[in-house]
Amino acid sequence: MREIPGIGLVAWTRCSYLKLNMTDRIAYSLDAADRIVRIEGQWDDFAAANRGQHVTRPSVLGTSIFSHIAGSEVRSLYRQIFAKVRETHEPARFPYRCDSPEFRRNMAMTVSPRDRAGLHIESTTRGVTTRAPASILTRGKTGDTARVACICSVCCRVLDADGTWREVEAADVAAACLGSAGSVQLVDRICPECSMVDLGCRYLLTGNDRVSGRPRPLVVFLHGGGHSNYLLRLQAPPRLWHRLQQDDALLVSPLKRTSGAWTTHEVQQIIDHVSQTYAIDSHRIYVTGVSAGAIATWRLLAQQPRRFAAAAPIAGISPGAVRDVSIQTPVWAFYGERDPVMRAQSFRAELERLRRFVPTLRATEYPEAGHEIWGRAYNDATLWSWILSQRAGSTTGRRGGW
Ligand SMILES: [Zn+2]
Predict the structure, then answer these.
(1) Ligand 1 centroid – CA 44 distance (Å)
(2) DSSP state for residue 277 in the 8-state scheme
(3) CA of residue 311 to ligand 1 center, whole Å
(4) How far, in Å, from the CA of 236 to the mean position of ligand 1?
(5) For 313-330, what is each residue's pLDDT tens digit?
(6) In angstroms, what is the span from residue 24 Cα to ligand 1's centroid?
(7) Which of 79, 58, 80, 83 is nearest to 2 (CA)?
(8) Ligand 1 center from residue 180 Cα (angstroms)
(9) 362 and 335 Cβ atoms separated by less than 8 Å
């Protein structure tokens, strides 16, 4: 995969030696099918200065922009921005960082509508400052996979080992302290803060986001409501990456954009959209959520009792939300014995009531545990083996078994 300079949310320039005063403006146009049909500005100069001779104009014209963007979350963000601009005919503008090892580069991108559902994309340099070369960027794409680190394609911060998104210099220091700065492979993602920037982004998609081919399982992850949950919401799922990759599953993380409860019909719309856009196995759509996301999981099950192949609500339940319905989905619920948000006694009582509506209900109570139990639950390989082995509408005996 070749990544294109100037698109912004790409990692390509991080492997480069960027010269100052370059790239004042890079622009290109897409047709309705997102193929690059025109290139303007200092494209070739930029490419030559950034070891990108392979992405000259002739070699990229006519290709899909999405074949050049690194990271499924970044591609899903772009798809949503493009869809919004095409739908509203309003341009979208946003700042981003496009650093090289020696330079912090503040950029701005504008995506504008054009005739016949085309788009015009322009990136301009807002400011460049120098720094001591950040070795984590210099060596980030060497193919040495001793350690994988996530980098935010919008703000250029790196997800450190302790779960915090840090400025690249700080992450570099931390990696150097660990003696691993030379063996870090960077994976492009979108950090939680940047995902909340109003770009029209409604969800993040993680995994192999090819649009055709063999249908794959889809895992829907619903984050919690509080601020700390919000920061955690996109950090719990990455632990599942390896497991999800094994099963070639896609992970969709809808973003709750308002305070209060989830709007489940929006979640359903996102699942519909993702199912229609990517090759999804409709018999293998799974839903899990934490805290407020667990409550939403229960409500989704009540609204669509046959849609999901398995569900795992964690630390959340909605007393009375399920009634007069037979939920065919196998459910595995988790809660802490000392959850201060809802007492274990209430969990037990509601789960007992739910057994009438959910024949295949399983529950795990963590002794002495409080509310934030999702790290523990998601790290349990048994949970994922169980989830991913379920199939909706199956009569083979796998359903509900554990
Ligand atoms: Zn960010």
Answers:
(1) 28
(2) H
(3) 30
(4) 17
(5) 999 998 888 888 999 999
(6) 23
(7) 58
(8) 23
(9) no
